[in-house]
Design brief:
Radius of gyration: 22 Å
InterPro entries: ALAD, ALAD_AS
Enzyme class: lyase
Bound molecules: ligand PBG
EC number: 4.2.1.24
Number of domains: 1
CATH architecture: Alpha-Beta Barrel
Protein name: Delta-aminolevulinic acid dehydratase
Order of helices and strands: HEEEHEHEHEHEHHEHEHHEH
Oligomer: single chain
Shape: globular
CATH superfamily: Aldolase class I
CATH topology: TIM Barrel
Function: Catalyzes an early step in the biosynthesis of tetrapyrroles. Binds two molecules of 5-aminolevulinate per subunit, each at a distinct site, and catalyzes their condensation to form porphobilinogen.
Largest sheet: 8 strands, parallel, barrel
Distance between the termini: 49 Å
Strand order of the largest sheet: 1-4-5-6-7-8-9-10
Length: 338
Amino acid sequence: MTGGAAGGLPEGAGVPRVRPRRLRTTPALRRMVAETSLEARQLVLPVFVREGISEPVPIDSMPGVVQHSRDSLRRAAAEAAELGLGGLMLFGVPEHKDAVGSGATDPDGVLNRAITDVVGEVGESLTVMSDLCLDEFTDHGHCGVLTPDGRVDNDATLVRYAEMARAHAAAGVDMVGPSGMMDGQVAVVRAALDGAGHTDVSVLAYSAKYASAFFGPFREAVGSTLQGDRRTYQQDPGNAVEGVREARLDVAEGADLVMVKPALGYLDVLRRVRDAVEVPVAAYNVSGEYAMVEAAAERGWIDREAAILETLTSIRRAGADVVLTYWAAKAARLLTRG
Ligand code: PBG
């Protein structure tokens, strides 16, 4: 065999005329042609606030994440505003739980007080969001109330969600996130808000939310003791068309944003939803996704900072306008460092 023009190339192959590598030559060029941006304003930090503690309590399965006290939550909120994050998503961990999740609608309940605290701290510099769901507040750990024979009662749960929506709005929240996957929840929450005069409070619908093993560490974070599983309301991980249907329904019911959750195993669903609706789309980079990277990094098996930025960039590339992530503050710092 005789060599090609470039010395050693097989005869007939020719010297490559089209060279995609050219655009990867320098950092400046790579930056100029980058298709996907990642900015602090697109990131939302989920935070946990626990009733009855005066110091933050670390969450073992989520290294670096804590259950906040009222004071430490205020400090975290101020820091998030300083970093230019898009918002905070608040989760409450009550001291007492019961069958109907009474703490969720108590104006002095942990979540409602936290909303007022955080809004008082950051004003309009951050979007303050609240998880609108009963699972943190029920003793059985389900996202709704139960029938006498132990099933999750959709319509009785909607009544509780309407009460929660009014309580969060009265506490000053900017945006509520109904996350319980009950049918009709967005319409009911929207009507409850409007009926109480809170027409400006927006709704981030957890639209395509799957019955996922990747919520595991979250259960520790909120001290949940779930009996059974959530498969009668959260979606089957194999269903993508159904995820799009749920998102379209939520938009029709008045959702201002829709969300896909978890993120990494569902990037195809995220892309389909992004293409199907005309509202901003969020994705939730969930506790198990966080824990996997943190655990591997702790063992030195993965470059933590690179893995964080790659994860968040991939979620953005797949179609998320907004990303909820426990790395929000960390990522914002990495991004400003450049
Ligand atoms: C429901 C809710 C859950 C998460 C967010 N909202 C738990 C669940 O549905 O089982 C999980 C978030 C995470 O894993 O990071 N209130």
